[in-house]
Structure formats: C-alpha cells, structure tokens
C-alpha cells in the first residue's frame, strides 16, 4: 500500500510538471458511468488488446477485475487475457523497462492510478487529440500533451488527421500557435462518435482501476440514504414526544 501511495504521488508530480510546461488542451469533457458494467467490460477489452502491450497495471489483479465486472474465470482468461498469466496474477507485462526506454525514449508508466494523477478529461482528450506530425519520431503529435512519446496506437479506428493552427507573433516577437481544427487525411474504421464512445469506455475502466472500492462504496449509498431518512424520521418522532407538553 505504501508503494502504491508513492507511485500515485509520483504520477501527480509528473502531471504537475507537464502542466507547468504548458496548458493542456481540453476541448471536451467526458461523461463516464462507472456503474455501467457494459462500459467497464468494453474498456477492459480495449485496454487488454491495445494498451497492455506497453502499459502494466501491476496494482490490479485479473481475478479482482473479473469479480467486479461480473466475469467468470473462463470469460476473463480466455476472452480478455492474451498472455499465459494466471487468474490470480497481477496485471503486469513482459516488456523490459530498459528496452522500452530505448524504443520510446522513456518507460511507459503503469496505469493503475493514472486516472487519479491525470484526471478523466485529460485522459479522454489525450486519446482523441492525436494528429500527424512528420517532425516527430513516431510520426504523431498530440494536442493535449505536446511532443508525447506515445504513438497513436488506436489510429486504425480514428483514422489519420492533421491539425491546422493559426501561427502569430505577440508584441514582443514571441511566436504562438492557436489550434483551429482537424482535417481528416484518412478515415478510420469507426465513425467519430463510435471512436469517442470506445475511448470513453476505456477512460471509464481506468477510472475504476484507480479505485476499485468505489464500486462497493456506491453500492452502499442507497442503504446509507435509507438509514439517514429513517433516523431523521425517528428523531422527529422523539422530538415531538419530548416537547408535546410544551406550548
């Protein structure tokens, strides 16, 4: 648990440093529903197939995810897990950190608590705001996190786009660029809304993984409210009884 807290703090510090370097572009706000089992399952499927090749989730276990998402062991291990991992294993990856740093310039971070460190809107906009940039080693850049080392792994779904900017100079001669819009270069296999729905489900799953206990907490909420209502009613009856002879 102590190690988890340290990693959360580290990610938050990294997020703060990135924000200090420039304001992140947040063009849309995401509306997730962590109570939607279908959304969480879709997000888990996307994560297992397209994110887990590079990003681990080492503070989460397959059996815990299966239990929370209402999946059997067979559905989890044969339907979602693409490695020879065991049901009770942590969600780690085989990629060597040194190799990852050589390939990408830095080791891809563990994503267990990334939703807490970055925020849901940031994650959503990061995943929908990739654009072609031939000056970058990967050929991609990102409007929300400029010069990100992560390539656009979901490009086949979203397609290829280039970003149009308005470049201008201020009174001091400093150059600035203002985002105008995206221009589609090659359409993806999904429509714009379908892709955004897929990303929304992925962000929803990352939100759940950052604090799985929130599902339990939310399940208790109706009973807590019922108890409060009942206690308030009984307290009112007690008050009436105490003060019935006082005029």
Automatic annotation (TrEMBL):
<feature type="transmembrane region" description="Helical">
    <location>
        <begin position="220"/>
        <end position="238"/>
    </location>
</feature>
<keyword id="KW-0479">Metal-binding</keyword>
<dbReference type="Pfam" id="PF02167">
    <property type="entry name" value="Cytochrom_C1"/>
</dbReference>
<protein>
    <submittedName>
        <fullName>Cytochrome c1</fullName>
    </submittedName>
</protein>
<keyword id="KW-0349">Heme</keyword>
<dbReference type="InterPro" id="IPR002326">
    <property type="entry name" value="Cyt_c1"/>
</dbReference>
<keyword id="KW-1133">Transmembrane helix</keyword>
<keyword id="KW-0732">Signal</keyword>
<keyword id="KW-0812">Transmembrane</keyword>
<keyword id="KW-0472">Membrane</keyword>
<feature type="signal peptide">
    <location>
        <begin position="1"/>
        <end position="20"/>
    </location>
</feature>
<keyword id="KW-0408">Iron</keyword>
<dbReference type="InterPro" id="IPR036909">
    <property type="entry name" value="Cyt_c-like_dom_sf"/>
</dbReference>
């Amino acid at each position: 648990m102590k190690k988890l807290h340290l990693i959360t703090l580290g990610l938050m510090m990294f997020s703060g440093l990135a924000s200090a370097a420039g304001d992140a572009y947040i063009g849309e706000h995401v509306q997730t529903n962590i109570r939607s089992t279908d959304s969480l399952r879709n997000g888990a499927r996307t994560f297992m197939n397209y994110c887990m090749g590079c990003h681990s989730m080492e503070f989460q276990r397959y059996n815990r995810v299966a239990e929370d998402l209402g999946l059997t062991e067979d559905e989890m291990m044969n339907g979602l897990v693409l490695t020879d991992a065991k049901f009770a294993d942590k969600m780690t990856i085989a990629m060597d950190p040194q190799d990852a740093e050589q390939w990408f310039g830095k080791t891809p971070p563990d994503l267990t608590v990334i939703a807490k460190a970055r925020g849901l809107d940031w994650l959503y906009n990061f995943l929908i705001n990739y654009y072609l940039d031939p000056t970058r080693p990967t050929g991609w850049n990102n409007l929300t996190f400029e010069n990100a080392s992560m390539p656009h792994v979901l490009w086949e779904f979203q397609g290829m786009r280039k970003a149009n900017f308005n470049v201008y100079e201020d009174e001091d001669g400093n150059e600035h660029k203002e985002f105008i819009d995206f221009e589609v270069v090659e359409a993806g296999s999904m429509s714009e809304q379908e892709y955004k729905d897929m990303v929304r489900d992925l962000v929803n799953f990352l939100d759940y993984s950052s604090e799985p206990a929130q599902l339990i907490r939310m399940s208790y909420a109706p009973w807590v409210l019922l108890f409060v209502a009942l206690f308030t009613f009984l307290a009112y009856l007690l008050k009436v009884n105490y003060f019935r002879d006082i005029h």
